[in-house]
Amino acid sequence: MKRALAEEKKDRYILGIETSCDETAAAVLKNGTELLSQVIASQIDTHQRYGGVVPEIASREHAVHFAPVVEEAMRRARLSFPQLSAVAVTYGPGLVGSLLVGVAGAKAIAYAAKVPLIGVHHLEGHIYANFLRRSDVAFPFLALLVSGGHTHLLLFEAHGRYHILGRTRDDAAGEAFDKISRTLGLGYPGGPGIEKAALTGKDTAFAFPRAMLEAGSLDFSFSGLKSAVLNTCNTAAMKGESLNTPDLAASFQQAVIDVLVRKSVLALKRTQAQTLLLAGGVAANQALRSQLARAMAALGVEFVCPEPALCTDNAAMIAVAGYYHYLAGDFAPWTLNAVPGLVLSQPCSV
After folding, report:
1. Are 189 and 48 in the same domain?
2. In this predicted model, which residue has the larger pLDDT, 331 or 345?
3. Helices (DSSP H) in 156-242: which residue ranges?
4. 322: nearest Cα among 139, 86, 8, 143
5. Cα separations in angstroms, 51 against 42, 157, 182
6. In what order do the strands lie in the sheet with 34-42?
């Protein structure tokens, strides 16, 4: 539902809510750039014993933490609910039970405060986390989104107008990190464990594959890489051989980074975009950030990435994406529902 938004001179306050997976988060944003509060209740300790997120437990934890997290975010922002301009909430993709807690809570708050409700795509939120650091990013820009469930290359022409140039055909990069981390005994979530182990490893110790797919393709595939690492570990186990875990971690990590960097360079050359935005949970990986920065410098392309704390799931990113929806008058109906399989627009060729 869209309606024209009258020009306002007063400050705009957006309450952002994120409950798509295992983080119950709320944040208050002023005028699109000033983060007044950010509160996150993490469930990592709860799910670590299972080696991954258990959906039913996650939704129950959200129900427990939702109200205290939102109330604390509002308290830190020193605002009352009627002072809000809108409530923005993730409505997909994600775990349906987790999403439902956030959507239902956001609808109740917006209705009671008599302010608009804004539905935000979780992946869009990750990309817009960059606007907290750089609100003046010029269009068009390329976005590389690397998270637990998604790996995308997108060309943004304007706010709300983008094309998917490439996406993963199987495992996302973050998903591969989690699976290999479990195999190597580095724990959950996998990204931090792999990155820490790789610091003392040799990234050329194992010749793992770099899947580039068809000539010129901007899609991604990490299932072959994952299988190569698993086969290496299983073969060594059957022979009674021990492998150097840091070397395995470093070699795997570098194989992922090589593909991400090469695909980004190819997309930039094809689109002539002059800015690359990095987003998603894997964007916190320092090796990926530094290698992308060097590649962009060599191309003369501006490189922008969020601070590491804003790469993983958080509500600040939902609030800033919601702010731009608010400016466009893009509000959700009260019938807004959780959409666990919510997708971005269809791929296009450039």
Report:
1. no
2. 331
3. 173-183, 190-198, 223-238
4. 86
5. 15, 39, 7
6. 34-42, 23-30, 13-18, 86-92, 117-121
Contacts of residue 343, Cβ cutoff 8 Å, sequence gap at least 6: 93
Q: Tokens in use for 132?
A: 């907290």
Structural domain contains residue 349 = no
pTM score, whole prediction: 0.90
Report which of 183, 195, 191, 181 is spatially closest to residue 146, judged by C-alpha positions: 191
Type of residue numbered 275:
T
| Same-domain status, 159 and 266 | yes
Name the residue type at position 167: R
Domain ranges, residue 98: 13-128+311-327
Q: 119-147: per-residue pLDDT in tens?
A: 999 999 999 999 998 989 999 999 999 98
Which amino acid belongs to residue 67?
A
Read off the pLDDT of residues 228-270 as tens digits, 9 standing for 90 and up: 999 999 999 999 999 999 999 999 999 999 999 999 999 999 9
Q: How far is CA 129 from CA 36, 79, 135, 153, in A?
A: 15, 22, 10, 16
Q: Which residues contact 215 (CB under 8 A, 6 or more apart)?
A: none
What does the chain come to in residues? 350
